[in-house]
Amino acid sequence: MDLAHDEERGEAEDVAPKDRREAILLKFVQGHGNVLNSLVSQSPALLEDSFSCLLKHPQCRTVLDFDNKRQYFTTQMRKLRRHVRTLNLVVRRSNVFEDSFMYLRLHTAQELRGRLSVKFDGEEGIDAGGPTREWFQILAREMFKPDYGLFKPSADSSAFQPDPRSSIAVDRHLDYFRFVGRIVGKAVADGHLLDAHFTRSFYKHILGLKVTPSDMQSLDPEYYRNLMELTQMNIEEIGLDLTFSADIDVFGSVRTKELFPGGAEIPVTEENKRDYIRLVTHYRMTNGIRAQLDAFLEGFHELVPAELISIFDENELELLIAGVPEIDLDDLKANTEYVGYSAASQQIRWFWKCLEGLPSEDHARFLMFVTGTSKVPLDGFKNLIGMRGVQRFTIHKAYGSDDALPQSHSCFNQLDLPAYNTEAALCEKLTYAIHECTEGYGFG
């Protein structure tokens, strides 16, 4: 019997219905999931009234579609923002992280629930959505930088979780974790997507879910495989010398941390090896970063109530934070509007041909250029958000020579495209613009 099977059996026991009425409800919900979701989609208010049980019971939540949950979440967050004044933030582009940290720590959670209006010092223009989106994207990059020592990447560099060494690397590190928690919480609350991917266990901590040894796969796949092999081996036969402790690399110096008092003196045996696996993974994902987790969660839950975010599972939370990673150009094209051009215009045909020929990295750059974010809306480009709510991507005809650059108005998801005389000129200028003008709103 493997570790994953043990966990699955344990989780099934943990969430078993407590009484017959609950069992009947669960059976009904699971048997009528499609109908219930259709009704909720047509009348979202049902989740606040007669269908509220779908959110109250953890097992019933799994039947609800992500879109229905997200709609309910958005509605509830909007209620929390009512009658709260706009919070104006001015930051230096060269010092976004520190300026934001110093400013936001002076404000209460209630004040932070209001609309956030960001302006970059020395740059013209009023924030109608674009600079704020860019501000979130800059912070999402900054908080993972090794210079800050707050987060460390997973073994495959695909995700991040708090660095247990942050107390050594950073003064006031817990204040910074609380700040980052507020930033992620504010982004989730306001519907801004972040280029931020965390480990599976970190998402579970945000949701208040039980972290299990299998979640170690997201942090260190090879280490997890080694632990799985340990369950198949006889420790006494292979002579493996382990104790109930963990070796931690602290900037080149190895330190031994006991998994419980006196653990370094207790050998791991065939009888207790599963206890060792449970404790060592719990240390790596929870106990070893407990202070950092608590500080982050304090900041996050100031903006997003724990009982509200808990309607999602860890996979849905990743979508809520980071959005759908792939950019579907066919979807973007199908949801594009034209002013001065039509879909049949020569320049428009050149435009799409050029964009389709660029690598995926440049697709993300292009999206950042015209919308202020490189992330796709959760439900596709038909619901692209701009200054006036849902605003589809629009290409406006601009006038100028072949030397003119395309310009963007990210607050309106708008591209001003000159009527170039050749395909080569259009592609050259478009490529230059998305590479050189991605960040900064003086050009729009």
Automatic annotation (TrEMBL):
Pathway, per record: Protein modification; protein ubiquitination
Any single Gene Ontology cellular-component annotation: cytoplasm
Domain of life of the organism in this record?
Eukaryota
EC class: transferase
Q: Which reaction does it catalyse?
A: S-ubiquitinyl-[E2 ubiquitin-conjugating enzyme]-L-cysteine + [acceptor protein]-L-lysine = [E2 ubiquitin-conjugating enzyme]-L-cysteine + N(6)-ubiquitinyl-[acceptor protein]-L-lysine
Residues the record marks as active site: C411 (glycyl thioester intermediate)
Keyword check for Hydrolase: no
Q: Does the keyword Oxidoreductase apply?
A: no
Keywords (alphabetical) are: Transferase, Ubl conjugation pathway
- Residues annotated as signal peptide: none
Q: What is its EC number?
A: 2.3.2.26
Q: Short name of one Pfam family for this protein?
A: HECT
Q: List the molecular function annotations (GO) for this entry.
A: ubiquitin protein ligase activity
PROSITE patterns in UniProt: HECT (PS50237)
Question: Which SUPFAM superfamilies does its entry note?
Answer: Hect, E3 ligase catalytic domain
Q: What PANTHER family would the database entry show?
A: E3 UBIQUITIN-PROTEIN LIGASE HUWE1, HECT DOMAIN UBIQUITIN-PROTEIN LIGASE
Family membership: Belongs to the UPL family. TOM1/PTR1 subfamily.
The protein's name: HECT-type E3 ubiquitin transferase
